[in-house]
Amino acid sequence: MDEAALRADMIEGLEHQLGEPLGASVLSALQTVPREAFVDDAPYANDASEEAGTRALAPATVARMLAAVDAEEGDDVLVVGAGIGYTSAALAEIVGARHVHAIDIDRRAVHLARSNLADAGYDAVLVDRRDGAGGLPEYAPYDRVLVEAAVVTPPRALRDQLDEAGRIVYPRGAGDQTIVAIEPADGVEPTDRVDRAGNDDPAPDGFRTVEEAGPARLRPMLVDGEQAGVERNRTRREDAEFAEQGYFARTGWEQEWIDWDERL
Prior knowledge:
This protein is α/β, with parallel strands linked by helices.
C-alpha cells in the first residue's frame, strides 16, 4: 500500500476509536502530512513511540489535541514541546507554516523537529530552544497555545502571552491526565466556575475550562536546567560545555555532586 492509503486507513481507525468524525481542518491536515517523515517504524500505527530519544505521540492523541485547539487559518499558534515536529506540521496545514512557533527545552528535540519539518516541506515553521515555562514572547500574543507536556496549571507566561480571545490546550494532571481547553473568563468569579462534571473548575484564575478531549499520558513539563535522563540540574555553563562535546550522556555529568547552595 502507498503512504496515502496508509494515512487514509489510519484516519478511519482514529475516527472509529474516537467515536466521532474528525473536523474538516484536522482531517485534511492528517491526510496531508507525511507521518513517515517524522516516525521511522510503523508511522501509521496508532501508538506512541521513541524517535531519537524524543517521544512521538500516538496519532489519536495528536488528533484530540488538534480538535481541542480548534485553530483557523491565519491563527498564530505556539506549540510548547516541539517533539518530533509532527503536531507542528499538522498545525501548519491548518493555520499556515509561518503562523506556527514551536519551542522545546531539549536541544536534541529542537534539532530533530527542525530536520523533520524541513524534510517534510514545513521548514517555514519556527522551532527554537526555549524553556517552555517562559513561552516565546517575541511573537506574542498567540491565538492558540498547545502544551505537549503534562502540567497541573499552564505557566503564567503562557497565559500572559495568550490573546484575550485565545485558547490554551494542555494535558491537565500529573499522573492521570485529561486533555483540556481553557479560555479567558473575564467577569466570571472563580466560585462561579464549574467543569463539565459540575465540580469546581481547576482552571487558573481568570480562565475557565471550555472543553475536555479525553485522557492522555504525556511526560511532565521540564523547566530550565532539567533535561530528560539527567540526574541533577546543570548550570548554563555546564550546558554549553556539554553541547560542545557533541554527545548526550544518559545519566548526565559523570562528576561528583556540587552543592551550589553552599557555594553561593
